[in-house]
Amino acid sequence: MNLLDFFRERKKQTPASIAKERLQIIVAHERNQRCEPDYLPALQKELIEVIRKYVNIDNDQVQVALESQGNCSILELNVTLPDR
Amino acid sequence: MAKIIVVTSGKGGVGKTTTSASIGTGLALRGYKTVIIDFDVGLRNLDLIMGCERRVVYDFVNVIQGDATLAQTLIKDKRLENLYVLAASQTRDKDALTTEGVERVISELAETFDFVICDSPAGIEKGAHLAMYFADEAIVVTNPEVSSVRDSDRMLGLLASKSRRAELGLEPIKEHLLLTRYSPDRVIKGEMLGVEDVEEILSIRLLGVVPESKSVLKASNQGVPVILDEESDAGQAYSDAVDRLLGKDVEHRFLDVKRQGLLQRIFGGRE
Question: Is the ipTM of this complex over 0.85?
Answer without folding.
Answer: no
